[in-house]
């Protein structure tokens, strides 16, 4: 990745949070806010992938394959990359044994500080048919964890119909997320901090309960009768917690007594 490409990614990441007038201490606060906002948005998008089909915008087998594997937030990034492949102009360079090398000129639209810019880029992609490895000079897979438009273009050029499995990282596979959500007996500390993460974990676990309980009518009836009690418990403990917080705030804000 070139310095300008890295700079574009950084600008994109902080877009809307940081300006040239932001001080260092404000920067730290806004950095945390920026990460949390993205975290919440990704969680929300990933929940959607559990019960809705991704909208396919092409007839590409790559898009269909990715829709079945990726969490929704990751699929959206992948789909954008695939569609942007339309702006690539390939040039065959050489075929050397199992390796095919292409050079791709691409026209890419990027947002820098809220301003849209059109850039021309040149990248070289090599595909090794024997090892099913594809490498691009933009190093998208190494830096972002998913294949770039150039690599996908080269795979299609070489007649590959399925992206090799190793290019779908475990951390963005919805089947693994779902399984981890069900099997993890300990909830990670960072997942406790965000309401949307807590919500996602509960949904995963409750889905499993629903799956099991719906198999037999007696279990279904039993669970259905239990739900109002669980809800009542949650509402009561919520009330107790908010009273405790109010009391703590009142003590904290009370003026100090002078003797
Ligand atoms: Zn690339």
Automatic annotation (TrEMBL):
Keywords: Metal-binding, Nucleus, Zinc, Zinc-finger
A single GO molecular function term of this UniProt record: zinc ion binding
Domain SWIM-type: 123-159
GO BP, sorted A to Z: regulation of DNA-templated transcription
Keyword Coiled coil: no
UniProt-annotated location(s): Nucleus
Keyword Nucleus: yes
InterPro entries: FHY3/FAR1, Znf_PMZ, Znf_SWIM
GO cellular component: nucleus
Protein's job: Putative transcription activator involved in regulating light control of development.
Family: Belongs to the FHY3/FAR1 family.
Name recorded for this polypeptide: Protein FAR1-RELATED SEQUENCE
Organism: Colocasia esculenta (Wild taro)
Origin organism lineage: Eukaryota, Viridiplantae, Streptophyta, Embryophyta, Tracheophyta
